[in-house]
Specification:
With 436 residues, this protein is mainly beta. The protein folds into two domains: 298 residues, YVTN repeat-like/Quinoprotein amine dehydrogenase (Methylamine Dehydrogenase, Chain H); 82 residues, Immunoglobulins (Immunoglobulin-like, Sandwich). The chain has no helices and 38 strands. The strands form ten sheets. It has a five-stranded mixed sheet, with no helix packed on it. It has a four-stranded antiparallel sheet with strand order 3-4-5-6, with no helix packed on it. The protein has a four-stranded antiparallel sheet with strand order 7-8-9-10, with no helix packed on it. The chain is globular, with a radius of gyration of 26 Å.
C-alpha cells in the first residue's frame, strides 16, 4: 500500500479474513484514484503527480514512471492514454505508450472542480461539480475540445454505457443523461439516493451507486427514464467508490476498508469478504483478478479475492493452420473448467487486431511466415497458456485450376484451389467411376 509513510503494500486476500502482505513499495505521496492496464497501476498522488507502477509481479511492484503536473485526483486509462481528472485544471491527457516516460499531450480546463472522468469513444465526460458533466471531444488527444454540458446540481461521479451517462450527483442523487448527441446531453431519468451519491459503476442492466453512509444501492436501469432500486448493501463504513467484476461488487468503504459484495441476486446482496486498510479507502478498480485499492492515508493496496473461485486448470488455442496474407483469421481459447466462477483475463500475443481481453482474437498477417499465436488465461489461480501456429502464404500464390471429370457421360469441371506455399501444396486424386 503506497502512502507518504507506508508506500505500497501487496496483500494476498485468498482468505478474506486473514490477508497476508506479500510485497512492499514506498511512494512519496498518499494515493487517491487508481486505474490499471497492461501490467501497470496508474495512481494519482493527490498533491501533484501520477505514478506509474509496474505490477506484473504483484510481489515486486516497481515504479517505472511519473508525471508532475497539476493536482491529480482520479484517472481512467484507455489504450495508450491516461485521462487524468485534475481537481483544479479539469482534464489532462497523458501518453503512456512508454510507461517509463508518460508525457502530457493535451488538456482542457473545466470551470469548476473536476472529481471523476469516464471515456467512451471519442469523448471524455468529466464530473465537474456544480457545473455538471463537461463533455470533451478527445478524438485529437493533443487538442481536446469541450463540445457540450450536461447540467446537474453537483456531479461527483460518472460512468458511460451506450448512449447514456450515469451521474452520482452528490446530495442530489442519481441522474441519467441521454448523450446520444454529445453537444446536447439531456436528463431522462432520476433516482433519489438515501445518502450522498459519490460514484457509480454500470454492469449489464444495473447501476451500482455508492451512497456514503447508506452503503451500496443497486438500481435497475433497464428503463433509463425510470431507474428503480432493486437491492442494497448496508456497508459498515461510508461507501465512497465501487467497481464490479462478475458477480462481485468491490466497495471502497472509507474507514471500513474494502468490502466484497455478492451481487448475483441484487435483492439479497451480502458481504463475502473484506480488507481493512490503514486509513480511509477512497477508490477501487479490479483488473485481471486483482483489486487495486487506494487509501487516503495508506496508499495503494493490491488485493486478490478468491472466494468460491475455481482456478483455471488448462487452456487450449484452436485456429487455422494455414492462410494467406491480407486475410483475417480467428483463433479461439477454451479454458478448463469452462465456468470457473471468477472473472478470467485473456492476454493474446502478439497483440491481435481485435479481441484482446476476450476468448476470441482476430489476426491479419501482412508478410508470409510461420506465426505462433499464444494465449495466457488467468483468474484466481496462476496463469496458464497455450499456443497455435499458422503458416501464412503470399496471397498471389493462390491458384484456381479446372480438372475434367466424367459424371453420367457428361463432361463437367471441378474447381480446385491450389497453393504453391512451400510444404503446403494441396493435391487431388482423380479417377473414373461407372454409374449404374
Amino acid at each position: 500500500m503506497s502512502a507518504s509513510d507506508a508506500g505500497l503494500r501487496v496483500v494476498d486476500v485468498s482468505i478474506p479474513s486473514a490477508p497476508v502482505q506479500v510485497g512492499a513499495y514506498t511512494t512519496p505521496w498518499g494515493a487517491r484514484g487508481v486505474d490499471a492496464a497492461a501490467g501497470c497501476a496508474y495512481v494519482p498522488g493527490g498533491g501533484s503527480d501520477l505514478r506509474v507502477i509496474d505490477v506484473s509481479d504483484p510481489a515486486d511492484p516497481v515504479e517505472v514512471g511519473a508525471t508532475a503536473q497539476g493536482w491529480a485526483k482520479d484517472v481512467t486509462v484507455v489504450g495508450q492514454y491516461a485521462y487524468i481528472c485534475d481537481y483544479y485544471d479539469g482534464l489532462r491527457i497523458v501518453d503512456i505508450s512508454d510507461p517509463a516516460s508518460p508525457t502530457q499531450v493535451g488538456s482542457c480546463d473545466t470551470p469548476a472542480y473536476a472529481h471523476d472522468v469516464a471515456v467512451a469513444g471519442d469523448y471524455a465526460f468529466v464530473a465537474d461539480g456544480s457545473v455538471g458533466v463537461w463533455v470533451i471531444d478527445v478524438s485529437d488527444p493533443a487538442n481536446p475540445v469541450q463540445v457540450g454540458i450536461g447540467y446537474t446540481s453537483n456531479a461527483f461521479g460518472v460512468a458511460v454505457a451506450g448512449t447514456y451517462a450515469y451521474i452520482a450527483d452528490w446530495s442530489y442523487g442519481f441522474r441519467v443523461l441521454d448523450v446520444s448527441n454529445p453537444s446536447n446531453p439531456v436528463q431522462v431519468g432520476y433516482y433519489a439516493t438515501p445518502g450522498v451519491a459519490t460514484s457509480v459503476a454500470i454492469a449489464g442492466t444495473y447501476a451500482y451507486v455508492t451512497a456514503s453512509e447508506s452503503g451500496l444501492r443497486i438500481v435497475d436501469i433497464t428503463d433509463p427514464a425510470n431507474p428503480t432500486e432493486v437491492g442494497f448493501y448496508d456497508s459498515p463504513g461510508s461507501a465512497y467508490d465501487v467497481d464490479v467484476a462478475g458477480s462481485r461488487a468491490y466497495v471502497a468503504d472509507d474507514t471500513a476498508g474494502l468490502c466484497v459484495v455478492d451481487i448475483s441476486v441484487p435483492a439479497a446482496s451480502g458481504e463475502v469478504g473484506y480488507y481493512d486498510t490503514l486509513g480511509s479507502a477512497s477508490h477501487v478498480v479490479t483488473h485481471q483478478g486483482h483489486s487495486y485499492l487506494t487509501d487516503l492515508s495508506g496508499g495503494l493496496a493490491i488485493l486478490r479475492y478468491s472466494g468460491d473461485c475455481v482456478p483455471i486448470a488448462d487452456v487450449s488455442v484452436s485456429g487455422p493452420s494455414i492462410g494467406f496474407t491480407g486475410l483475417p483469421y480467428t483463433f479461439t481459447g477454451a479454458i478448463v473448467p469452462p465456468s470457473p466462477g471468477d472473472p478470467v483475463s485473456y492476454t493474446w500475443s502478439p497483440v491481435p487486431d481485435s479481441g484482446q481481453g476476450s476468448a476470441f482474437a482476430s489476426y491479419t498477417f501482412d508478410l508470409p511466415d510461420t506465426y505462433s499465436i499464444t494465449l495466457a488465461a488467468q483468474n484466481c489461480g496462476g496463469p496458464v497458456s497455450d499456443s497455435a501456429q499458422i503458416v501464412i502464404c503470399p496471397f498471389e500464390e493462390r491458384r484456381v485450376i479446372y480438372l475434367p471429370i466424367v459424371v453420367r457421360d457428361h463432361w463437367s469441371s471441378l474447381r480446385v484451389r491450389v497453393s504453391r506455399c512451400p510444404a503446403q501444396t494441396h493435391r487431388m486424386r482423380t479417377g473414373c467411376r461407372s454409374f449404374a
